[in-house]
Amino acid sequence: MVGLSARKPPSRKGSMADVPKDLLDQIKRLEELFTVPGEKLKEITDHFVTELQRGLREEGSTIPMNPTWCMGFPDGHEQGTFLALDMGGTNLRVCEVTLTEEKGEFDIIQSKYRMPEELKTGTADELWAYVADCLQQFIEYHHEGQKIEQLPLGFTFSYPATQEYIDHGILQRWTKGFDIDGVEGKDVVPPFEAALAERNVPIKLTALVNDTTGTMIASAYTDPLMKIGCIFGTGCNAAYMEDCGSIPKLAHMKLDPKLPMAINCEYGAFDNEHKVLPRTPFDIIIDKESPRPGQQAFEKMIAGLYLGEIFRLVLLDLHQQPECHIFENQDISKLTKAYSLDAGFLAAIEEDPFENLSEVQDLFANTLGLTTTKPELELIRRLAELIGTRAARLSACGVAAICKMKGWETCHVGADGSVFNKYPLFKARGAQALKEILDWPEKKGKGRGDPVELFPAEDGSGVGAALIAALTLKRVIAGQNAGIKDPEAMKKAAEGVMKVRPHHHEE
What we know:
- By secondary structure, this protein is an alpha/beta fold.
- It is built from 16 helices and 13 strands.
- A hairpin with a 3-residue loop joins strand 2 and strand 3.
- The protein starts with 8 loop residues before the first helix and ends with a helix.
- The relative contact order is 0.18.
- It is an enzyme of class 2 (transferase).
- InterPro entries: ATPase_NBD, Hexokinase, Hexokinase_BS, Hexokinase_C, Hexokinase_N.
């Protein structure tokens, strides 16, 4: 009984001896469909580079390459007390982050509040009133009896938004189950600030932050080799630091070409034109039946939301083929329900440590009401491996493309998201793909990491958002007001931080 991580693929091949020819033929066909060889990965990466560059040149390109107005990495010496707000689909999280005198160190206190379902389809006023109430509760609880001038806030707003300034953002479209009228196409900051003002909550929104940018900045605070932040979860995305001189679409602003600017790539939309990604008939069905066909082509092949659905569609297709005998004479009604299987289902299949795949057998019985034979289990396991491996290998193309475009031969990448953190072998398979794309030489000596390596990220929506607020105030104090809508109010907030810090150390 060998654990998954220790088991080498040949031992699984050995167990194919008793698989009948019809299923072996199908496994071979699926291997041809889902395997992406190194040469193909290189071709995808090269096209990715041209699309990233196009996004820096043109507004409205497939990969938007949104400037975030987060201009620089932390140096580890930032100090002060900052709030962070993360408005997710299920929870609202409020953090107070104190950046201490120790380089790269911080203290954090946090509270979670449930995001009521009815708010997601209610009115904008109700939403912002609830958010402001949570912030007010947080401050009253943690700063009882203290006089606070103003606390600066980094707001992680992980919905597609365009930003001409770091302290504002125009919502492009709601995601995560939100559908509130009259917010899309508008700046979300004024109504949010109005709700705070109505309650006299001493908070100044200092930075509206995307979670990928937050991930990169939080990771860079503790690791100076960090250059990219990635999310591999329900969706996929990355952020990295560009210099303003390499962003032609900002040329009219006459910024110093050497100034750094964090770019939120929003690259889940890569190859919406279907020029290079090796789509299978199953990927085409997923796209056609999704709420937004023709969008997020890359994401639909690698993100957690879709992996279980690709798997389900393949099994359904196999069952319906007359020459293939799988789940014969069984009720497959549970397998016909769209999006009933998630990435966690595939992860559980890949994690079964037993040679006879008894855990997978139980999983199919309990979840889908299906009895599985040993040959069917072998096919199921191989299919999960193929889909999981393809996702990890394709995901490496985005990271490799940023490195190639920037000429980085070595860097650390901060990665977050459920697929990265929980899917078995995702990191190892991605690393193997990076090696093939970037042609790394064989390693010499033990203990040396790969030239480009992914690490679990620091808390991007908490610590990252607070750090970006700190970096923004640092810029204002230095008189660098590019991308700041209300520098005067920011200066006041900066003074507020200085005043609140002594109180904090006395607690």
